[in-house]
Design goal:
The complex is a heterotrimer of chains A (1017), B (193) and C (222). Chain A has 1017 residues and is of the alpha/beta class. Chain A folds into seven domains: 185 residues, FAD/NAD(P)-binding domain, CATH 3.50.50.60; 71 residues, 2-Layer Sandwich (Alpha-Beta Plaits), CATH 3.30.70; 166 residues, FAD/NAD(P)-binding domain (3-Layer(bba) Sandwich); 137 residues, Rossmann fold (3-Layer(aba) Sandwich); 180 residues, FAD/NAD(P)-binding domain (3-Layer(bba) Sandwich), CATH 3.50.50.60; 146 residues, 3-Layer(bba) Sandwich (FAD/NAD(P)-binding domain), CATH 3.50.50.60; 56 residues, Alpha-Beta Plaits, CATH 3.30.70. Chain A has 27 helices and 48 strands. In chain A, the strands form 15 sheets. A five-stranded parallel beta sheet of chain A has the order 5-2-1-9-20. A five-stranded parallel beta sheet of chain A has the order 11-18-12-13-14. A five-stranded parallel beta sheet of chain A has the order 28-27-26-32-43, with helices on one face. In chain A, a hairpin with an 8-residue loop joins β16 and β17. With 193 residues, chain B is mainly alpha-helical. Chain B has one domain. Helix content of chain B is 47%, strand content 5%. Chain B contains ten helices and three strands, in the order ααβααααβαβααα. Chain C has two domains: 116 residues, Rossmann fold; 74 residues, no CATH class. Helices cover 32% and strands 19% of the residues of chain C. Chain C starts with a strand and ends in a 26-residue tail after the last helix. Classes of the chains: A alpha/beta (1017), B mainly alpha (193), C alpha/beta (222). Chains A and B meet through loops of A and loops of B.
Chain lengths: 1017, 193, 222
């Protein structure tokens, strides 16, 4: 067991943050804080970190493998120096206040010494069926590792199930079993605490009507994920639990344990289930057969996230997922067979239809686990009625106790991107309780000196990863390693399991040193995600990081040729051979450093821009806040109250006041961006201010784009043509400012999805359902006799908004569904309007003469404006026109151009609370990159050979960043500090005078020669 | 207490310290403890077949499968396990009889019987001679359904059968028994002395 | 610059077919700028030829070299060490370069790889247009800086012909009528009077009509 010192040095506690919970949210918080120079203690009650995400098979909307996308984070979080990770540890007491907490931690005994355990698996093999973690489908054996290559990479013993510990002790070759392990209790000091405790999952055993307890083919969604997963009980084959047969018809039933009032259900919506059911259905068809019939029984299809509506359309149109709007009651097993039958009433006809399925998946919702509720209460944090942490709309990650923050599921049910956003936001807010960190993290002196390899014949080490089943399931990695070993100049060749784990990387590092290797080839995953890691590894082994070649045998072989293993292996061999030939030509490249500019440019002065600016300014950064209008406030200026009744105008006013008077923020209004150059740590942006368009350049180190989006005003339903018709935003103002007019209203009709979820604007605007409910409740507060009709396609009141939807119905608001191909009809009738629509239950058209018609028009991007900004910053956008982030799942704040981040509705439609969380998250991300004092200039830049240059100007014209110029000596010159390494000039130069470092002609030619080389027998 | 009392307490938000339970649970408990000495011998030779209704408010909407199991235990104890036929579907998945919600008092007789057809079909499918309806509303509806289905089955209360199997069912408590049971185990307080 | 375009590959293949070893020489000046014969084009052509012959089963050995220029003898000298090992030379330079190589190495056949086109300027990346025909007696001062000899289809000296329509030459709607351009320019300069001044019949001897031309600078030549 690692011993942890109590913090004797008081100054240390000032820089330390405790993160409770090692799931994705906790890991993101920990990494952000560590990268920004803080010390982190990450505690997790389970024996390894990863939380829910490690148990899922694929994630929406990219349908990537979960474990692949999260694994690098897991191992990284343990390798990062300032993170102290304690597994099997719980918090028992918290004392003190923000800036100075004392926390008591209790670590349960693992009975295995983490420092000695090599995870060889002998104990696992010898003792009864130790199956991998599969909730509900497999029991656990005495020793259990949670998922393949868990972090920490060690087993743990369940003493309660162990009959004879001495046998286990004897079996262990590393002598790592500790039978008398008592665990430890310790106290730590920290400046802030972040609760990232995740969610429990509803147990449907109490719902007898679904037969979950006694029908093996009725499974929860998490159990289904395990069945689909390559690391699950069926090893990635889709088999029915009862008889291991392949299913042909699968049904999902939504809202199990959510949106309910009985039998232990929670009344709120669990937010992510509609998407994950769609994902499970799509993945089922994609991976296991187009002919498998998939049916989802739902009430409302809540696909409100960024591009999620398009995902829904694809599910319906491309994959043929059947959606039935009905909440069926019973799942009945036909006696004497495994078949499950569900009877339901389809929406379009009144009869009872019975269908049979092989597997029924219950989409179970999320709730707060009992131990988390107790912990929160012990910590003195206010909880809402559903036991989630209570936070305000304007400080979404701050709990009621100063210094303690929350992120992820414990704040409210949500999906992975929102969890990551809150994780970063919590990191930012936690930092605000402490002075700026003293020294920059992991500087150059920590690495061993670089070996000089000039003149040495190449000694190449080839390391092949199997990535669990992801590569190993298709390619025989041992054979591949053997093949590589026979290539010329290869000194070492071996397979290293899952290469990105701490252990494998240590093995590679040690071999580089012991075998005196001077080149490294990794046969593994994508350089996009892994290159930095392996370059870092080379540095730690004393080699220049550019003496590395990565052959992507996962994406380019295993993932695309899974059905053809024989040829897949041949291709993998070719790729490895190419890499081996190329790496011999790799030269050491030196990274230059320049001083980093730590100022930040925030573009956009709405709630997001101001929140980012304030978060950064409070922590000592100088911020330039540029706003194109004359006043700060953005779209929020049009809002009066939130759904929960919080005062937007007041909070906004306070925020504007704070922003304008903050000594670290320079506000520039009436300004437009016109140009932008440079890279992280040294950007220069030009703006034009005021009607006279005076030009000014701002030097800054990072950029946050918080440029928002536009409220939509489509020419539909007589909007802007008839006085009775207005948008929900207009209505919010009208209701608040003119209550006496509201009292006089008789009938009010609201129409949802106006101008969204249509071909012109395909995605959901997310905020309109709650806006409609908010306005309806507000109208009824003033005028309880008003008759309100809401015409909707799906009510998307996710999370705790669902409670307000229920309240609206209880108060008599009538909600009527309309189909997209039969929308309501609106005609003027004096100063009122006649709204005609078909009631789906009566199946008859109805007409309401409305005093007011409120249209939920949502948001639409001003494509010209975002196109202009995108061109200036060289950013991609979605087809809707929103900025496209680096990775829609795992990097929702970073933009593909390094140093650039997005926050608020510039990313996608969102509520104030979500925008502010993203803004604080962007501030945190900025702090991670500005934490260092120097910029390391990438040596992957273009270089000109002046002798060969013909001064033809092709490179000058072709460069998207305007970097090359003809110098005084008459040839082209490229400033390595400005070059982005795109390689366009090198490709275009007709004199072949330009080479892109790391991608030089001889390196590429060597790869081709390696590919085409034929061995003469 | 009865269900209507419970519903009233809830509707008018009246605080109470009562725990609400169903009598089925107690019948089952007492039978197991031997306090209620029921005996199914009376049906040993008659071999009359019985099925049981799962009343919505008690089973599906309240206590779920566990109480359904207790109910079946009681029924099997009093009629003999081999004489019990479950309808399909059953327990928490069983269909409503169609008589609740004031339907019996509503006057829409044809509609009520149309809604009850599923229940009637379920009972007919079992081929049972008797249906035990342990809820007075279900009893009324199922009895009415039998009238329009050629009296294909007899409808009895649970207490009736318990008393019969205890041997204490009096002569004027036999209104719902079929002719086949009218004279079985008749209890005359005078003669039992 | 002098613009050129590479000849069709079929033609070049036939030139070198009889030979097993050739020297392919590029030029780092004009033909590099117009992407016809620079170092990159040399590499591309060498690969194309090798592949074409490989398909026929013939192996051809191609040495690739790019000189700073091919119109000065000093640069041509750089080819000397390589000439022994080859049977033919193909030059990707303009006609001047091809001839200089031929002049220096009398015993080896020299082939042109490009068609030399005209003296021109870049209109934009990838587009070059003829500007000057080297008439030897430049009258650009009279025509507002726009040349009627190079840019008028009929070399007219005194205004457009009847075929000038909407500012375009009658031979093609893509060709500007240069006299329209000249007139517009003179107007913009406020020099309309120049238009009235007649430019006399041109003495074409300086334009090559008097035989091949040479410049001798007595102060520079030895």
């Amino acid at each position: 067991m690692k011993t942890v010192m109590n913090s004797h040095n008081e100054s240390q506690s000032n820089n330390k943050v405790l993160v409770i919970g090692g799931g994705l949210g906790g890991i993101r918080t920990a990494l952000d804080l560590a990268e920004a120079g803080r010390n982190v203690v990450l505690v997790e009650k389970d024996f390894s970190i990863g939380g829910l995400m490690t148990q899922l098979d694929r994630t929406f909307p990219t349908n990537n493998c979960d474990l692949c996308t999260i694994s690098p984070y897991l191992s990284e979080s343990v390798r990062q120096l300032p993170i102290e990770f304690l597994s099997m540890t719980r918090v028992t007491e918290v004392e003190g206040e923000a800036g100075d907490f004392t926390v008591t931690l209790n670590t349960a005994p693992r009975y295995i010494d983490l420092d000695k355990c090599t995870a060889c698996g002998d104990c696992y093999n010898k003792f009864p069926e130790c199956v991998r973690f599969t909730p509900g489908l497999d029991h656990r054996a005495p020793t259990c590792m949670r998922y393949p290559h868990a972090t920490p990479q060690a087993f743990s013993v369940d003493m309660a199930k162990c009959n004879d510990i001495q046998q286990v002790v004897d079996i262990c070759p590393a002598g790592a079993i500790v039978p008398d392990d008592k665990g430890t209790t310790q106290q730590i000091s920290c400046g802030a605490i972040v609760l990232a405790t995740g969610a429990g999952i509803f147990d449907p055993s109490g719902l007898d009507n679904f037969g979950y307890k006694n029908q093996p083919d009725v499974v929860t969604s998490l159990e289904y994920e395990r069945i689909l997963s390559a690391s699950g009980p069926t090893h990635g084959y889709l088999l029915r639990p009862s008889d291991n047969e392949k299913p042909k018809k699968i049904a999902w039933i939504q809202c199990i344990g959510s949106r309910g009032m009985q039998k232990g259900a929670s009344s709120y919506c669990s937010s992510a289930c509609c998407m994950f059911a769609l994902k499970e259905a799509i993945v089922t068809k994609e991976r296991f057969g187009e002919d498998i019939e998939t049916t989802i029984f739902f009430m409302d299809m809540r696909t409100f996230g960024k591009d999620y509506e398009c995902y829904l359309e694809r599910a319906k149109n491309e994959f043929g997922i059947r959606l039935v709007r009905c909440r069926p009651h019973s799942v009945i097993q036909r006696p004497g067979s495994n078949v499950l039958s569900i009877s339901f009433a389809p929406f379009d006809r009144s009869e009872l239809v019975t269908e049979e399925f092989d597997i029924v998946v219950l989409s179970t919702g999320f709730k707060v686990a009992e131990d988390v509720k107790k912990l929160a209460q012990d910590m003195g944090i206010e909880l809402n009625e559903h036991n989630f942490a209570k936070t305000s709309n304007f400080q979404p990650v701050s709990t009621s106790r100063p210094g303690i923050y929350v992120c992820g599921m414990f704040e409210s049910p949500k999906d992975i991107p929102e969890t990551l956003i809150q994780g970063s936001a919590a990191a930012c807010m936690a930092s605000s309780n402490m002075p700026a960190p003293e020294k920059a993290p992991a500087s150059e002196e920590d690495f061993p000196p670089e070996k000089d390899v000039t003149g040495q014949p190449p000694r190449i080490g080839v390391f092949i990863c199997d990535c669990g089943n992801n590569i190993g399931g298709v390619i025989d990695v041992e054979e591949l390693a053997e093949y590589a070993g026979n290539l010329s100049d290869v000194a070492v060749s071996k397979s290293v399991g899952q290469g990105c784990t701490q252990e494998s990387m240590k093995e590679i590092q040690d071999l580089i040193v012991s075998e005196d290797l001077n080149r490294v080839v990794i046969g593994g995953t994508s350089p996009r995600t892994e290159e930095l890691k392996f370059q870092d590894l080379l540095r730690r082994a004393g080699l220049n990081p550019y003496l590395l070649e990565i052959a992507n045998i996962r994406d380019q072989v295993a993932w695309v040729h899974g059905d053809n293993p024989e040829n897949a292996l041949k291709k993998a061999k070719s790729l490895i051979q190419m890499a081996v030939c190329a790496v011999k030509k790799n030269r050491p490249l030196i990274e230059q450093t320049l001083p980093m500019n730590k100022d930040v440019l925030v573009v956009g002065g709405g709630v997001s821009g101001m929140s980012s600016a304030l978060a950064l300014a409070d922590q000592g950064f100088k911020v330039f806040l540029v706003e194109k209008e004359d006043k700060l406030g953005g779209f929020a200026k049009n809002l009066r109250k939130t759904l929960e009744g919080e005062d937007v105008a007041g909070a906004l006013g306070e925020m504007i006041e704070k922003t304008q008077t903050h000594e670290n923020i320079e506000v520039i209004t009436g300004a437009n961006l016109v140009d932008h150059t440079g890279k992280t740590g040294m950007f220069r942006t030009g703006i034009q201010i005021g009607p006279e368009k005076s030009y000014r350049q701002i030097d800054h180190g990072a950029t946050i784009l918080a440029t928002g989006t536009q409220p939509n005003r489509p020419a539909e339903y007589l909007l802007d043509q008839h006085e009775a018709v207005m948008t929900q935003a207009d209505a919010g103002i009208f209701i608040e400012d003119s209550p006496e007019k509201v009292k006089a209203l008789e009938n009010i009709v609201m129409i949802q999805c106006v101008g969204s979820r249509c071909p012109d604007n395909p995605n959901c605007s997310r905020i309109c359902c709650q806006a409609a409910v908010k306005n309806a409740l507000h109208i009824l507060d003033i005028n309880p006799d008003a008759q309100i009709f809401v015409l909707y396609r799906d009510m998307r009141t996710y999370g705790f908004q669902e409670d307000y939807y229920r309240k609206a119905r209880e108060k008599g608001v009538i909600f009527i569904r309309y189909e997209v191909d039969a929308p309501p009809n609106v005609e003027a009738s004096g100063d009122k309007v006649n709204v005609t629509f078909v009631d789906p239950i009566l199946n008859r058209p109805l007409m309401v003469t409305a005093d007011k018609l409120l249209l939920s028009t949502g948001f639409k991007v001003d494509q010209k404006a975002t196109e202009r900004l995108a061109r200036i910053f060289k950013l991609p956008r979605t087809h809707d026109g929103y900025f496209l982030e680096e990775h829609v799942k795992l990097r929702p704040i970073d933009l593909p151009v390094p140093g650039c981040f997005v926050a608020g509705t510039a990313h996608s439609p969102r509520l104030i609370r979500e925008s502010i969380a993203q803004a604080q998250a962007a501030a945190s991300r900025v702090q991670t990159i500005l934490a260092k004092d120097v910029i390391h200039l990438s040596p992957v830049v273009a270089q000109v050979d002046g002798d060969k240059c013909a001064a033809c100007l092709v490179c000058v014209r072709a460069c998207p960043f305007n970097v090359p110029y003809i110098n005084a000596d008459g040839y082209s010159e490229i400033d390595p500090a400005k070059c982005h390494g795109c390689g366009i000039c090198a490709a275009e130069c007709p004199a072949k005078a330009i080479q892109l470092m790391k991608f030089e002609d001889d390196q590429i030619m060597a790869k081709l020669e390696g590919l085409f080389e034929r061995k003469v027998a | 207490m009865t269900f209507s009392v419970l519903a009233g307490l809830k509707k008018f938000n009246i605080d109470h310290k009562c725990e609400v339970k169903s009598i089925y649970e107690y019948y089952a408990k007492w039978i197991r403890e031997g306090k209620l000495k029921v005996n199914s011998d009376w049906n040993k030779d008659l071999k009359l077949k019985f099925t049981v209704q799962d009343p919505c408010q008690i089973i599906r909407k309240s206590y779920g499968d566990p109480i359904a199991e207790d109910l079946r235990f009681v029924v099997k104890s009093i009629v003999g396990e081999e004489n019990f036929i479950d309808m399909t579907p059953n327990r928490s998945n069983n269909f409503c009889c169609g008589g609740g919600g004031g339907f019996l008092q509503s006057g829409y007789v044809d509609a009520r019987r149309a809604y009850g057809k599923i229940k009637a079909d379920q009972i007919l499918a079992t081929g049972a001679d008797y249906c035990i309806a342990a809820c007075h509303n279900c009893h009324a509806q199922i009895h009415d359904l039998a009238e329009v289905n050629d009296h294909a089955w007899q409808t009895v209360h649970l207490w009736t059968m318990i008393c019969l199997s205890l041997g204490i069912l009096g002569p004027n408590e036999r209104e719902y028994l079929g002719d086949d049971l009218k004279e079985v185990n008749v209890f005359h307080p005078e003669t039992a002395l | 610059m002098i613009t050129a375009e590479r000849k069709p590959l079929e033609e070049l293949i036939e030139y070198v077919r009889p030979y097993d070893r050739i020297l392919l020489v590029g030029c780092n000046e004009c033909v590099t700028v117009c992407a016809a014969g620079g170092r990159k084009e040399v590499g591309l052509l060498a690969s194309a030829l090798k592949m074409a012959f490989a398909k026929e089963g013939k192996t051809i050995d191609i040495k690739e070299l790019t000189l700073e220029r091919q119109c000065d003898p000093e640069y041509i000298e750089e080819l000397v060490p390589h000439i022994e090992d080859v049977d033919a030379v193909m030059s990707m330079a303009c006609g001047c370069g091809v001839q200089e190589i031929a002049k220096r190495f009398k015993n080896i056949p020299v082939f042109p790889a490009v068609n030399t086109k005209f003296m021109g300027a870049s209109e934009q990346q990838g587009i070059w247009a003829e500007r000057c025909q080297g008439c030897g007696d430049c009258l650009l001062g009279l025509t507002g800086g726009i040349c009627p000899i190079a840019r008028c289809s009929k070399h007219l000296m005194n205004g457009p012909c009847g075929g000038s329509t909407n500012g375009k030459c009658e031979i093609s709607p893509d060709v500007d009528c240069v006299w329209q351009l000249i007139w517009d320019r003179l107007k913009a300069l406020g020099m309309e009077d120049r238009y009235e001044e007649i430019i006399p019949a041109k003495d074409w001897r300086t334009a090559g009509g008097g035989g091949p031309r040479k410049i001798i600078r007595e102060d520079l030549a030895e």
